[in-house]
């Protein structure tokens, strides 16, 4: 039986290697987009395809190997006491359904809070870059009634993109900023626990049945379109209609959905 530290170290190596591969995918995708020669662009796309397969294999290794050994009830007493624990809010949805031979089942679906989703994209859209360039090209002081000053353009950026994004656009387009152009990033969730534990509590605080441990949750769970894939990587699974009929909506990910026989 592995210790908590050994499992964490192995998961860290797998996740780090996967992130490195995804970084290579982004770099090759930018290179392919700017490649004029069709044959060379096709060769780059083939490399990207091979790297994606390697990343997918690492993801399966992550959630199908060491993560399965992470039993919260077993390892909770091995947590390091000097490290604070962040309790992030989750939205839990439940629904009773007919489980056939299993009788009635309680379907459980969990959504992370908005702050758990990392949506910052370092790459600027064309409109964002144009707004930033116009800001830096504008005069600090308004010279006449028809020319917009920087403060006026800043107010427009603030209203359009919000304070955090507007500030990033201003910094990213600063002519004096020598930082390299950002690369596109897929929205992902980084604050979910390794696994969720569900308890069904009845009247008087009575525990109904055993605790239910959810499937392993991958680190950096994708929560949006992939900017390096055609159509953002969005595809409809074969059983999509069935799942929509069952849930009246599609769950974010099957790994944070589960069922409890009642």
Describe the structure.
It is extended and about 75 Å long. The protein folds into three domains: 1-85; 88-121 and 186-262, no CATH class; 126-172, no CATH class. With 262 residues, it is α+β, with helices and mostly antiparallel strands. The strands form three sheets. It has a three-stranded antiparallel β-sheet with strand order 1-2-8, with no helix packed on it. The protein has a three-stranded antiparallel β-sheet with strand order 3-4-7, with no helix packed on it. A two-stranded antiparallel ribbon has the order 5-6. The chain is built from seven helices and eight strands, in the order αααβββαααββββαβ. Helix 5 crosses helix 6 (163-172). The protein has helices at 4-34, 38-64, 72-75, 126-137, 150-161, 163-172, 240-247; strands spanning 90-98, 104-112, 117-118, 188-189, 197-198, 212-213, 221-222, 257-261.
- Over all CA atoms, what is the radius of gyration? 24 Å
Q: What's the SSE pattern?
A: HHHEEEHHHEEEEHE
Proportion of beta-strand residues: 5-15%
The helix fraction, in percent, is 25-40%
Secondary-structure class: alpha+beta
Q: Label the overall shape.
A: extended
Q: Mean of residue pLDDT? A: 80
The number of domains: 3
> How large is the count of helical segments?
7
Unreliable residue runs: 243-257
Annotation, overall tally of beta strands: 8
Largest sheet: 3 strands, antiparallel
**In order across it, which strands form the biggest sheet?**
1-2-8
> End-to-end span in angstroms?
32 Å
Topology:
Blueprint: H1 4-34, H2 38-64, H3 72-75, E1 90-98, E2 104-112, E3 117-118, H4 126-137, H5 150-161, H6 163-172, E4 188-189, E5 197-198, E6 212-213, E7 221-222, H7 240-247, E8 257-261
Antiparallel strand pairs: 1-2, 2-8, 3-4, 4-7, 5-6
């Amino acid at each position: 039986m592995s210790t908590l530290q050994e499992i964490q170290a192995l998961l860290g190596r797998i996740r780090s290697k996967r992130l490195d591969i995804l970084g290579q995918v982004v770099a090759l995708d930018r290179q392919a987009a700017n490649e004029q020669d069709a044959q060379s662009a096709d060769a780059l796309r083939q490399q990207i395809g091979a790297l994606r397969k390697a990343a997918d294999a690492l993801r399966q290794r992550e959630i199908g190997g060491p993560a399965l050994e992470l039993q919260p009830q077993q390892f909770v007493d091995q947590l390091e006491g000097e490290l604070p624990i962040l309790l992030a809010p989750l939205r839990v949805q439940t629904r009773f359904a007919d489980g056939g031979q299993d009788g009635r089942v309680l379907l459980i679906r969990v959504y992370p809070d908005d702050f758990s989703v990392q949506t910052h994209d370092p790459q600027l859209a064309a409109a964002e870059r144009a707004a930033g360039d116009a800001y830096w090209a504008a005069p600090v002081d308004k010279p006449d009634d028809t020319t917009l000053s920087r403060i006026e353009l800043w107010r427009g950026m603030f209203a359009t993109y919000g304070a955090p994004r507007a500030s990033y656009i201003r910094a990213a387009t600063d002519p004096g900023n020598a930082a390299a152009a950002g690369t596109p990033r897929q929205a992902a969730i980084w604050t979910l626990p390794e696994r969720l534990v569900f308890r069904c509590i009845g009247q008087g605080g009575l525990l109904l049945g055993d605790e239910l441990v959810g499937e392993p949750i991958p680190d950096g769970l994708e929560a949006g379109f992939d900017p390096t894939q055609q159509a953002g990587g969005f595809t409809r699974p074969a059983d999509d209609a069935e799942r929509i009929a069952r849930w009246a909506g599609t769950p974010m990910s099957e790994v944070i959905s589960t069922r409890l026989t009642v």
